[in-house]
Each structure stands twice: as structure tokens, then as C-alpha cells.
Amino acid sequence: MTFVVREFSLKRITISSVNSSERMAIARLVHRIGFGPKPGQFRKMLKQGFKVSARQLLNSGLPDYGDIKTAIGIADLGTQPKPNSELLTPYNAAKRAQLRNMSLWWLDQMVDQDFPFVERMTWFWHGHWATSYSKVNEPVVMFDHIARLRKHAIGDFTLMCEEMILDGGLIYWLDGQLNTANSPNENLSRELLELFTLGVNNYSETDVKEAAKALSGLRVVKSSGLVTKDPRRSYVGTSTVLGTTGNFESATLARFLSVNVACQSFIPERMTYRFISPASSMMSIPMKPSERAKSSAHIIKKAFATRQILPTMEALVFSKSFQDPTNSQVKSPLEWLVSVLRALRITPSTCSQPDLLLTLLDTLGQRPFFPPSVGGWPADEAWLSVASSQTLIQAAQLIVSQGDLSPLMAVAKKERIEALADWLGVAEWSDRTKVALDGALRDPARLAALAICSPEYLVNA
Amino acid sequence: MENISRRKFIKLTGVGAVAAAHSLSRFEFAHAAGPRPLPPGTPILVIVTLNGGNDGLNTVVPYLDPIYKSLRPQLAYKEEQVLPIGDGLALNGSMTGFKTLWDNKQLAIVRGVGYPNPDRSHFSSMAIWQSASRTPIKTGWVGRWLETQTENPFLAISLGSTMPPLFQGDKRSGTVLPLSGLKTPTGMLAADYAKTSKKTKLDGQLSATAARSIRDLFTVAEIVSPILKNPAPPAADLPTAIGGNAGGESNLSAQLDVAAKLIAAGVPTRVWSVSLGGFDTHANELSAQSLLLGTVSTSISKFMSQMRTIGRSRDVTIMVYSEFGRRVRANASDGTDHGTSGPMFIIGERVVGGFHGEQPPLNQLKDGDLAVTTDFRSVYGSVIEGVLYTPVDRVITGWNDRLPLFTA
Fold first, then answer.
1. Would you kindly state where each structural domain of chain B is located, as residue ranges?
2. For residues A314-349, b (16+ Cβ closer than 10 Å) or e, as one string?
């Protein structure tokens, strides 16, 4: 599939009408709800204004992917050959190739699509239902896991829960296949309550045990992720979860939890955590009715009443908190890399060193399909360290040397600092960074390498 | 040989004069360790992580126990293969270096260490050990300790390429130092990044951290790079079979060599993190595990000897742990599956050598697994107070237990 990229001249248009808070809001929009601007996009958004740009992004949908698995060769590899078998080497090679293909395919979507909002949401949900290849160890199972998240990424959260609780990758990751009536394993049950639907302190240890009964007896075919329920291993009888007694099974339990009142707060909090700021997600809703109606947290939670994800994201994007200058956020390594590749028009799978990009994400600690734990990836300061600075600076030089710098080349030297901000979607350069950029005006590569490692780019204003 | 002068640290980090170390009390002393050469006598902690779940029963072996032999017919060591240390227990035969440390009363073995309701997932269990919390939290215990200290990029260094969860703080984290050292741009680009990472009052908290992480890179690289060109301190008092540099150096030994060079040069690091993987021995355990334990024993013995050479052996404490022990009964592939508790090793001249904690009895297994007789947080508690000189509950909220692991 191809995406038509419209060219915009980066010749300075007068956008004096755009005030600095609108500029910051649009910078946030394009980096947090998308994956950063493609060349020319930020300036076009400035002209359109925040509202029109936000609607355009939120309603962008997905291109028709067709049959991805066939296209990139993702398939069940069957049972792993015995340690001494000569089939083991080709089996491992096929596994590596599939994992590589699906990783690069996903990165391609994030980089190449004009408005990658649904992939941005899929990425968010990957961190929410955080399941890792490191234990699942089967490309097709992880591919299907992400495909399910993509299917519901901006849809109905209840349907997402019903489908995810029967996802082979998730079950295997949390030992769900070891949970039987005679020998319960509470791992999946606990995380379903704590991390996926209700949040900590909104359930009791008894609820965990009772929910585990409902989830018991599942079998997972390791190589394909196929899930079946084995009646001989399943608990028979009713269970009582959050005070309600019933004949719960996986899907009915997931539905029941998703419509619980705690879930209505918990999921908006997780969205706020990732898209606005971790600190802001902790804010409580004011008690006074007049203040309450205006509170962003209240508005976002209200929007989630129907468990529809898209309207909730709309409420979030148009909330006051989203534009509050104090809610800055560190770009995570994947967000940084994808936004840099978008600006430089580098398609991951067809660039000169695709594997280096995956290694880079691995080194920085955020490779897709490999969340560090069921808690998902960390945020903010966790991404800023001496080692990550070294890696980013080295990567910046390498990536810039392979990218398209025409947006900078095309403008006169004295206009390059502003052009750079618009090209990358930076709200505002600090004075210290301006000084540095000023000394590098003659060399667009140096200018770009410097800009993408500047505090103003590493942090989404 | 490149050493750190106090002036150089002050010049590079902009930190002013600090009161003379010898006049400070124990706790003030710990808090005064800013970016200047580490004063002799300052305790240093080296954390050794064994990844994969080390089989404790074949590390500290109950070789006389008939249940041990009967549950592991192909996997039990015989008396002549192990190094007896009393109480019916013996060290794995490959751990001759540890046996010497034991005989010198410099090795404490804490038995049956784990946490309540053992989790058999490598990931969850390691997260529990590194966060020092039974329920998931985002910060590691060293990261939280760092936040009780004056900011200093040298304070905690992990050798490797990625940040262990252990080092993750809320606002700041430890430093990760790749074994190959840090590479920074030179010339024009270096000057450029120095400009973009300048401190400015206008920065928000996150931008300030972003700028600092780039500044720290140049600061750490400038100090560390020349030191890493030094030869590692010799292990002068060990026979060359252990201390020599002839081939076969393990990665653990390479990590400890880097730490030894930097400690010798006076880098103000209080916590080091090194690791060794491969302990997930589901099959053909005997040879694989004894090779690994031999590496642990040899590398640590050599490191302690290096510390004696440079006069820091009294300052250094080493703590060795793994995310869980393994099942008592062998599996069908001459290996063992994920289990529960295991022994921890604490090594150093200030350590109270000998056994601590109860050996989990083999006739009282719970679902075929060893009991947990010591909570790992009690070991951490002793180390946090005894080595890091910090009250335990500032690092592990609500935890007060500790073991008598250190001499006063």
C-alpha cells in the first residue's frame, strides 16, 4: 500500500495569528495523539487550527491492510523441534525472520501513515495489556494479540475485554493455561482485575480467587495461540466476584468487570497517564458541582460511560488538561524514533539498516512486542539516562545521515531555526538551544542531529 | 595511572567544598558522598544478579540428607564432589574460591531466602526482587535509595547496556555504563551538545532532567574513559590459576574488572550492579550450573583480591541473589523447574561469616517446594543500613526487619 504525501513548501508563511498556546497545543496533538509531524504537516495544522486538526487526526481511521499475515509471512511454526534435531536451525531462523518482519511492518505503519492515530492507540493498548514475546515466544501469537488490540483500539472497551481475555498470547503470558479447578493459578485473574480493568484497591483477594475459578480450565496451543476450554480442568459452579454471584466464564467475567464503576475511572486514568501526564492522572475530581462539571478528569470519565474509546479520546484531547502547560511529557524511545523517521522520511523496512532500528529500540528499552513486564513501559524520567543519551546522540547522527533534509536545505540560513521547529513540530526553542542551533546553521545535518537530541524535542512541551 | 583528583571532580561537576570526611558521623558521612573522590573507608555495595533462577539446593548442598538423594537420583551430588561447610551442608564443588572466603569468615550464607506466595514467572519474580515490593511498583530499591541522596551521576553504576529495574527511581535513576565505555561526539558536535544541555532556570522539571542526562553523559564519559584504559588492578594474593589474566575471562569477570578499575581510581560510586545469566537449568543441569557457579566464585574471589591490592577490601560488600530457587524434585530432563526459595551470599571483611536463617527442611515441603524461611527484604534491610547507612524505611516503606549480617 502507498500513502500519498502532499508536499508543503516550508517557505515561511506568516502565521502570526497563531499564538504560542495554540502552537503548543498543536505540537502536543501531533506528537501525543499521532507520532509527530511529517514534513509540512505541522505548518498545515497551524493554519487549520487545533480543532480542525484534532478532528482530522481522531477521525483518520486505518488504511485497508488486506491480508497482512500472508503479505509478510506470519504463520504457525508448529512445535519446536527437539534440541538435537537438524530442523532446529531452520525453525529458529524462521522465527527470527517472522518476528523481524512483523516488527518492521508495524514500525512502517507508524512512520508512513499520514495520520497514524489508530496505530498510536494500538501502541497504547499494547502497553496496557502488556504481553511480551520474551515468554510467548511465538511470532504468530504475538501478531494476533496486537491485531486484536488494533481491532478494538478506538472501539468498544467491553468488546476488547471479552476478546483479550481469550487471547492465547495473554493467557500464556500470565499462566492462564496452568489455572485449573484443582490447582488454581491466580496470575491472569489478578492482572485482569488490577491492571486491565479495575485498578489496584478496587477488589479483594477473594475476588481474585473467585475470578480465577471463572477463568479456569483453558488450554492454549503454544505455537498457534488457539484457546479451548477443557471441561475436566474447569471449575464447576458459581463464583462470587465483587458481590455478584453467577456462572461466570472468561468472556462474561471480562464483560462484567468492564462495566464496573471502578473501570469507568481506571481506564480514563490510564489514558490520562499516557496522553496527558502521569501526574495529571492522579488528580481527583472536585466535589463541588460547579467545579466538577469543568474538571478535565470528570469530563473524560463521563465520556467513558458508554465504554466507547474514541469519544473518550475526543474528550481527552479537547480537555483543559491536554493544553495545560504544566503537563509536559518525555517522548518514549519508540515515540522519539518514529517521530524522527517521519520527519526524515525514512521507511523502516526499506531503509539501509532495518535491523539497526530494532537493536536501537532494544538498547533503549522499548522494542515493540517486548514490554518489560505486565505493568507495561515506564514513563518520563525513566527514559532519561546517561546511557540513553549516548545512544540517542549516536543514533541521531546515523539516522540524519540517511534522511531527507530537503525541508532544511530549501530555506535560507536565517530562516532555518524557525523552519526546524515547524518541520519537527517543536512548540518553542529555548534560548540555550537557539544559541546552539545558531552556530550550526550552515550544516543541515548537524542542525538536525542537534535538534532531535535537544531537551525541547526529547520532551513534549 | 589515571586517578581522580578532588579538584577535577569539583571542576567537572561544579560542586563546591564539602566538609572533611573524617569529622562526619556515620549517617552524615553517607549523605556527604557527593561528586568527589570516594573517601577511603566509605562502604561500597556490589550487587550480583544471577539471572534465570539459580538452583539453591545444588549450590549450598544438603548432601547428607536422604530426601535430597531420593528426590534427585541423577542430580544429587555425592559427598566427595562437594565442599562441606558444616550443618550437613556443602558448597558446590566448583566454588573453591567461596570455600576460602567461608574459611576466612568473609562469607555469610543466608538460607531459604524468598518472599511470600512465590511467583514462578522469571519476570514477576525478578520484578519483586528488584523493586523490593511484593506488589508491582515502578521503582527499584536502589533507585529509591538514590533519591535519598545528593544528586551525583556516579553514585550507582550498572555495568551492561540497559538499565536494570533495580536502578529505576521516580525522579532520577542510576547510571548505566556499557562495558565498552561511553562514546561521546567530539569537536564541534560536543560543543553543540554542551550548549543544548546547559542549565537554565526556565526549564520545567522534565526538560531539566533531559538536559542533565546529556550533561551527565559528557561528565561521566570524561572521567571514566581515561580510567577504563588503565589495566585492571592485579589480584596479587591469589594463585595465577584464579587471578591470572590468561584467557577464558567470563563476562562477569569483565564487568567486575571495570568496577575494580573505577574503584581503584576513586570514582565516587556507592552501588555497583553486575549480572550473569544462564541459570534457568531445565535440562542437563549438573555441568551447566557448576560451570556458572565456578565463574561466580572465581570472579568474586578475584575481585576481592583486587580490592585487597588497592586497599578497599574492608569497604566492599558483595551481595549475590537470583530471582528464585528451583523445584526439589528433578524433572524428566535431568534439570529442575522453577521453584521458590534459595540461598543468598553476602561477602566482605565486615560481614559476619557463617550461616544465617534456617535451612528449609526437605521433609516439610509445600507442594513439592522449599519453604521461605527468610524474607529477602530482611537481607536488603541489613545491607541498606549496614552498607548504605540509610534507614531501611526510607527505601522499603514499612519494612523494619533485618539480620545481624555486619560487624559493628
1. 6-180+250-394
2. bbbbbbebbbbeebbbbbbbbbbbbbbbbbbbbebb
**CA–CA min distance B137, chain A (Å):** 9
* CATH number belonging to domain B6-180+250-394: 3.40.720
pLDDT at B202: 82
Closest to A310 (Cα-Cα) out of A180, A117, A455, A25: A117
Cβ proximity of B176 and B158 under 8 Å: yes
State whether B189 and A450 contact (CB < 8 Å).
yes
* B369 CA: distance to closest CA in chain A (Å): 15
Distance from CA of B253 to the nearest CA of A (A): 21
How far, in Å, CA of B214 to CA of A330, rounded? 14
- Does a structural domain hold residue A377? yes
Cα nearest neighbour of A371 on chain B: B123
Chain A positions touching B128 (Cβ under 8 A) are none
Q: Measuring CA to CA, which residue among B309, B398, B383 is closest to residue B350?
A: B383
Which grid coordinates belong to A275? Answer: 496522553
- The 10s digit of each residue's pLDDT in A184-194 is 888 899 999 99
Pairwise CB contact (< 8 Å): A432 & B196: yes
CB pairs under 8 A between A and B: 147
Does A352 reside within a domain? yes
What is the per-residue pLDDT for B41?
Answer: 95
Helix axes A205-214, A250-258, angle to 10 degrees: 140
> What is the reported pLDDT for B31?
38
Point out the residue among A386, A387, A455 whose CB comes nearest to the CB of B196. Answer: A455
Split into its structural domains, chain A has a count of 1
- Its domain, for residue A381, covers 329-460
Residue B15 has pLDDT above 60, yes or no: no
pTM (whole model) above 0.80: yes
Q: How far apart are CA B30 and CA B18, in angstroms?
A: 13
Interchain proximity B216–A389, CB inside 8 Å:
yes
